[in-house]
């Protein structure tokens, strides 16, 4: 899962933005290939309070208008659905994203927690125990306190981890 717009933010600044009305949204678009029309969700965008979504959503809206509308029967229907969603500022998925972020890192909305794309997902590194995605977390206690590890996103159910050099 990719989240755009969190670069350089800490858990504190994310929490502050959320309190001020920031939200995570996805936009919709549809593409028709020959006669098959498929609905696609966009990447997830974090929209700060007061930040407009038009510039982001216009690309998806145009893609639907150019590539999606002519596939029958669903092209026009999905295109209109995409237009409505995008004009309303995207589909709000803040609760889902926050649940996901809390699941992969309990530190994320705590003071000093880290939020950036690199911290959220490591596509290249898979859990040695279960093959899931891993996240970066510092050890809080014990002899390795402060040292960073790749930790399975399903921690604590899965204990897979790899120390970072
Ligand atoms: Zn695992």
Number of helices: 5
Q: What structural class do the secondary elements suggest?
A: alpha+beta
What's the overall geometry?
Answer: elongated
What does the largest sheet look like?
A: 4 strands, mixed
User: Order of strands across the biggest sheet?
Assistant: 1-4-3-5
Proportion of residues in β-strands: 25-35%
Strand runs, count: 10
Low-pLDDT runs: 108-123
SSE order in H/E notation? EEHEEHHEHEHEEEE
What is the residue-mean pLDDT, rounded to a whole number?
75
What integer value in Å does the Rg equal?
A: 19 Å
Tell me which oligomeric state these chains represent. single chain
Bound molecules: zinc ion
Q: Helix proportion of residues, in percent?
A: 25-40%
- The count of domains is 2
Distance, first to last CA: 25 Å
Short description:
The protein has about 160 residues and is of the alpha+beta class. Helix content is about 30%, strand content about 30%.
């Amino acid at each position: 899962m990719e989240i755009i717009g969190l670069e350089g933010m800490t858990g504190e600044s994310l929490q502050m933005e959320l309190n001020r009305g920031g939200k995570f949204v996805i936009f919709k678009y549809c593409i028709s290939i020959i006669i098959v029309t498929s609905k696609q969700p966009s990447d997830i965008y974090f929209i700060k309070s007061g930040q407009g979504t038009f510039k982001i959503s216009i690309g998806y809206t145009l893609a639907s208008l150019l590539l999606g509308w002519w596939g029958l029967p669903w092209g026009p229907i999905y295109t209109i659905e995409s237009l409505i969603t995008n004009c309303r500022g995207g589909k709000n998925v803040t609760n889902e994203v926050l649940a996901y972020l809390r699941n992969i890192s309990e530190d994320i909305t705590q003071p000093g927690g880290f939020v950036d794309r690199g911290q959220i997902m490591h596509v290249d590194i898979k859990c040695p125990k279960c093959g899931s995605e891993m996240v970066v977390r510092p050890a809080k206690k014990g002899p390795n306190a402060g040292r960073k590890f790749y930790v399975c996103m399903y921690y604590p159910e899965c204990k897979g981890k790899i120390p970072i050099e």
